[in-house]
Amino acid sequence: MLTPIDATAFAARRARFLEGLGQDAALLVAPPHHHRNADTEYRYRQSSDLVYLTGWEDPEVVALFRPLSDQPFVLFVQPKDPEREVWTGIREGVAGAKERYGADAAYPIHELASRLPALLMGYATLHYRPGEDLVMDRSVFGAIRSMAKPAARNGGEIPWRFVDPGRLVGELRLRKEPAELALLREAARISCDAHVRAMGTGRPGVAEYEVEAVVDGHFRRQGGNGPGYTTIVGGGKNACILHYVTNREPLRDGDLCLVDAGCEVNYYTADITRTWPVGGRFSGAQRQLYEVVLAAQIDAIDAARVGRPYREMHDIAVRRLTEGMVRLGILQGDVTENIHNESFKRYYMHGTGHWLGLDVHDAGVYWHGFKSRTLEAGMVLTVEPGLYIPPDDTLAPEAFRGIGIRIEDDIHVTADGPENLTAACPKQVDDVEAACRA
Ligand SMILES: [Mn+2]
């Protein structure tokens, strides 16, 4: 069973956020509701920062945080509108914002610009991210400009220093609470099942989109919101295109198929990649390359430990992959030399992972200045080394050309070492082949 994130948990997060703000105010804005085409709308998906602190799911919402005031949490929301609600669903409205979402004050969204000056008076620093919504930028900065004269007359600070709010929320989001881990585990469980089903579906002649349909269909049937990012199904050389989402070619016997897909459950997403043989058996060259990536991934996962620098798992993966490529004759010469001159990047051009949570590439910085940050218990990250030999690459032995392989798991950093949340998804050669022939 899922552990729902209740009102108390949101209030606790806001308390931590307000403490982090110190004497600064913060204004978090939801993204506009984009149209897919003409007047057809995408299903709305709340901004991760905003939903993390408030739980509010509807569009057109602005959250204002005012530490050290008698109304520290103010929401501007879509007001009740029976006529509009017939079309787009029941709105919580101003009363709901106060009664069910814990707002100390709530107003209709169209009152934002007129109410901001009074609410922001006294705060010298505002955490607000400009450049995402130009209409919103004009209201916010227009409101602040209008504060100058009254401030000069009556005294009092007005916002003059601006900080990206993502930095502070990102630090909170980086360390997962037990309830968040429960959602990530559920997302991982559904995603593992979906990948096993994909392996059983992808036979010669089956189209990439049919594999996508099995994966995405399983996400929805299990109650997930759907994929947390667009599902990648790349047969053969399509696996060498890192973000291939066209998914419309038939799978061919003798090729590998790369599937990168994760289910989103209550806003939290998994992120798994598996690469498997369409015909049910790896060829000799495919297996050799696969074993190199797998060994690199297993060693990199082992570095996801409390107190180790984040960067270390990438360094380990790069060394293992480069050793393997030299052994297989894909790279020439000395391993260390190939790492120093970055010639491995010809076949391994991406990082080895990223934070995972509400966003597939989750919030939180990786570096403190020039220093890689240290891993802490409660962080969740992916480990996803790969090798991609372009089909027309004349430097690599012919047997490896056109093979793309990536293996990705979701790792929870704990005091007892790395916990693989996606361990149920087969990745050893024999297990993968068995799942493909099932
Ligand atoms: Mn990933």
Summed up, what is this model?
The chain has helices spanning 7-21, 48-54, 82-88, 93-99, 112-120, 134-145, 148-154, 166-174, 178-201, 208-221, 284-302, 312-327, 335-340, 429-437; strands at 25-29, 35-37, 40-41, 62-65, 73-77, 105-108, 125-127, 161-163, 226-227, 232-235, 256-261, 263-265, 268-269, 272-277, 367-368, 371-372, 380-383, 386-388, 404-406, 409-414, 417-420.
Notes on the protein architecture:
By secondary structure, this protein is an alpha+beta fold. It has two domains: 7-172, Creatine Amidinohydrolase, Chain A, domain 1 (3-Layer(aba) Sandwich); 175-437, Alpha-Beta Complex (Creatine Amidinohydrolase), CATH 3.90.230. Helix content is 37%, strand content 17%. It has a six-stranded mixed β-sheet, covered by helices on one side. Strand 15 (367-368) and strand 16 (371-372) form a beta hairpin. Helix 9 packs across helix 14 (429-437) and helix 11 (284-302) packs antiparallel against helix 12. The chain is elongated. The model has no long low-confidence stretch (mean pLDDT 96). Manganese (II) ion is lined by residues 271, 354, 382, 384, 408.
Shape: elongated
In order across it, which strands form the biggest sheet? 6-5-4-1-7-8
Instruction: Characterize the largest beta sheet: strand count, sense, and whether it forms a barrel.
Output: 6 strands, mixed
For the secondary structure, the number of strands is 21
Overall pLDDT score? 96
**How large is the count of helical segments?**
14
**Whole-angstrom Rg:** 25 Å
The number of domains is 2
Structural category: alpha+beta
Q: CATH homologous superfamily name of the largest domain?
A: Creatinase/methionine aminopeptidase superfamily
- Percentage of β-strand residues: 15-25%
- Bound heterogens, unique: manganese (II) ion
- CATH architectural group of the largest domain: Alpha-Beta Complex
CATH class of the largest domain: Alpha Beta
